[in-house]
Amino acid sequence: RSAEVLADKEINDIQERLGRVQRPSWHRGPPKNLGNAEHSKLKAEQWKSSIKFDLPVALMHLWGQDRQKLAHSMVLLATVIHWRTLHVTSPHHAQQYTTYMRAYLKCTQEIFLCHSWHPNHHAALHIREFLYIYGPMHGWWMFPFERIISALQNMNTNYKIGECLVHNTERKEQYKQHYRRIRENNVGDILHSCES
Question: Burial of 78 by CB count in 10 Å (0-12 exposed, 13-18 middle, 19+ buried)?
Answer without folding.
Answer: buried
